[in-house]
Amino acid sequence: MYNTLLTLFLFAPPAGGQTPNPFVQIVPLVLIFVVFYFFMIRPQQKKQKDREKLIDNLKRGDKVITIGGIHGTVAGIDTDKKTVLVQVGDTTKIKFDRSAIATIDKQDAGDKLTTNE
């Protein structure tokens, strides 16, 4: 009984030159797949869903940051072509794909004060 438990839990081949149980050989592969799923695949799928929700909730007037690091305000959204018109300066407007929006900047209280030295 002890050898059987030791064989199942430690995945050691049985003593005495016997052929190992095929179930015992498959268990480590299944465990590796389960670990990969819960630590890599599932969090990535959740992150992707959150990103899609962020892009779908994009509206005019939102302050955004693109994947290139450009900060601006959404001036218009074209849902057919999946593009966003971002106003960067006073009159400068740049068209981006919706997938190029990295984050929506939630700065409602204004910019932080900085000291000029």
Q: How would you spell out the order of helices and strands?
A: HHEEEEE
Classify the beta-strand content into a percent band: 15-25%
Task: Using the alpha-carbon principal axes, give the shape.
Answer: rod-shaped
Helical content (DSSP H or I, runs of 4+) = 25-40%
Low-confidence stretches: 108-117
Overall strand count:
5
Strand order of the largest sheet: 4-3-2-1-5
**Structural domain count:** 2
Report how far apart the termini are: 77 Å
Largest sheet: 5 strands, antiparallel
Task: Give the averaged pLDDT, no decimals.
Answer: 81
Structural class: alpha+beta
Radius of gyration, whole Å: 27 Å
Number of helices: 2
Outline the structure in words.
The chain has helices at 2-10, 22-56; strands at 63-66, 71-78, 83-87, 93-97, 101-105. It is α+β, with helices and mostly antiparallel strands. It folds into 2 domains: 2-54; 59-105, SH3 type barrels (Roll), CATH 2.30.30. A 5-stranded antiparallel beta sheet has the order 4-3-2-1-5, with helices on one face. It is rod-shaped and about 80 Å long. The termini are far apart.
Please give the structural blueprint.
Blueprint: H1 2-10, H2 22-56, E1 63-66, E2 71-78, E3 83-87, E4 93-97, E5 101-105
Antiparallel strand pairs: 1-2, 1-5, 2-3, 3-4
